C-alpha cells in the first residue's frame, strides 16, 4: 500500500473511532476538508483550484480548475496563475493570442488592444496597427489622431513628427505635411499654416523657409534708386514695381530672414508704413494747388503726380532735378527750389559752380574713387 493511501486509511479509521464516540463530520469546517488532498472525493473530483491526478493537485498556471477531475486551459485573451478556479481577462492595453497563457503581453506603441469584454470574461486576443495619420504609446486601447502641425506617415507611429520648415499641416490626422505654396514661406517646425511674403519681397518656389527681396530699380537717368514694393504674397519678381500712392509699404526684411525656430509664433506684418515724402497723389493732368507742378512718373506703373518743387528733394525746382542724385552727396535738402548740400561723403567737400552744388574730392583716396566713377 502506498504511503498516501495508508495515511488516508488511517485518517478514516481515526474519524470512524471519533464518530463512534459522538464525533460528527459536521464539526469539521468544509473548507478544511475540501482543501486537504487527503479528502479527495471517491468519485475522483476535487475542490475548486485543484484537479485530480491520482489525488487532488494544485491547478497549474495557464489553466483553471472549477472543481472536478480535469484542469482546463485558459482561452485566448485570458491568463491565470497556479491554483486558479477561473481565468482572468487580459487587462486593458495587453493581449494574448495563445491559449494557456500565464500572463498577457503589453501592446506595442503604434498599436492598440481592443480591451476587456465583460460578456465573455476575455481581453484582447491581438494587437492592431493604428494606421497612417494616427499614433499611440505602449499599452493603448485606442489610437490618437496626429495633431495639426505634425504628421504620422507610418502604420505604427509611436508619436507624431513635427512638420519641417517650409511645410505645414492644418488638420488633425495628417499622414504627410504640405509644402508652402509659391508666394508664402514658413521658417518654423510644427506649423499649421504658412506666412505670406511681405511687401517688397516674393517667392516663386514652393516649400520655402524665406522670401526673396524684390530686385533693385534705378531712376531713368541712372542716378539714385527707386523704392520698390510688391503686394503681400507675390510669387514672381515681375510682380515687383516702383512704389506709388496706394501701394503697400515695403517691409521685405521681415520675410527674408532664413533662421529656423521651434516657436509657433504668428506671422510678421506683411506691410510697413507708407514712406513720408512718397504720399503723392496721381492725377491725369493739371494740379488744383497753384504751387504744385505736374510731373510725369517715369518708372513703375507710370502716371502723373502733383509736386511742390520748392521743397521736394527728387524734384527740386523742376521735375527732373533730383538733389539726392548729386554724386557723392551726403546730407542734402531742397530749399526754395534749389539743392542745398550740407555734407558730402568722406573725402569730398561741397563746391558751388554757377550756383549749382557739387562734391569735389579732397583726398587721394577720394580722387581715385572719383576717377573710377568717371570711366
Automatic annotation (TrEMBL):
Keyword terms: Signal
Keyword hit for Secreted:
no
InterPro entries the UniProt entry points to:
CPL1-like
Q: Which domain of life is it from?
A: Eukaryota
- Could you say which residues form the signal peptide? 1-22
- KW Thylakoid (keyword) present: no
Domain Protein CPL1-like intervals: 304-351
The protein here is known as Protein CPL1-like domain-containing protein
The species this protein belongs to is Rhizoctonia solani
Please name the taxonomic classification of the source.
Eukaryota, Fungi, Dikarya, Basidiomycota, Agaricomycotina
